């Protein structure tokens, strides 16, 4: 078999594996609050999230096109298939390490850092599309701060609306609302996160000479959506435990406020064709909600641990991908 075709097939397999891992790694964030408040059982939440992720993944393609051309121009990339394969191996490795320790790190940071690191290792810093790369970094950096503020404001509005209501009855009713907000959260996750693997697969097809434009083919969309849905159905209970219980004690009203805040931001980013970290956005929205409820109610020790993981993910994944590329280059 031709080496380039073989590498392209490998990239597609690893891209689907990345999406599968993303499904049980990141989707756990989307349903964590509804599980922790017992609005949904873990099994029901996981299956609902799998279905909503699949639907969301098939709905949009803007983020996929951003990933496929705004970090590195695939038409200008020599050894493109090898670069992308190295990036996927590094991204998957980092995702599995953080999943094993129950740390809700960012798959988006891992993937984008890995693509940049592998490309730089192959062709130097000049290969990066700096305009597009910086635009993506800005979205990744600013979205958690926006989520923190929106979460704070959303919870403040809930407090005013429910001021004279019986808190027990209100929480009971809001628990039903949470079923809808959790479904919305999973849908928006699919509209943004699943597209990253679609973008990677499209990059590989272009680099391998099997595609001439940046359109996302239907089979790419369906296979990536199915991989994420399948991964979601496996579940990510370690991440659910961290996000749903260790940041703060979440009641139904807090969960609904966090879900609405983060879903709105993720969907807004999708409409702007910007990849954001669902992990960052959801965790930050919970912190914002907790701050509005009671500053001391947030476990800032766990929050600090999460933020530190966010910070190191990009450089660690980039370095790892650069090393993996050099190793693959020796083999191929």
Automatic annotation (TrEMBL):
InterPro entries: Phos_transporter (IPR001204). One of its GO terms (cellular component) is membrane. Keywords: Membrane, Transmembrane, Transmembrane helix, Transport. It is a multi-pass membrane protein. Its main location: membrane. It is found in: Membrane. One of its GO terms (biological process) is phosphate ion transmembrane transport. The keyword Membrane applies. One of its GO terms (molecular function) is phosphate transmembrane transporter activity. The chain crosses the membrane at residues 6-24, 45-63, 83-103, 110-133, 139-162, 306-328. It comes from the Bacteria. This is Anion permease. It comes from Sporosarcina ureilytica.
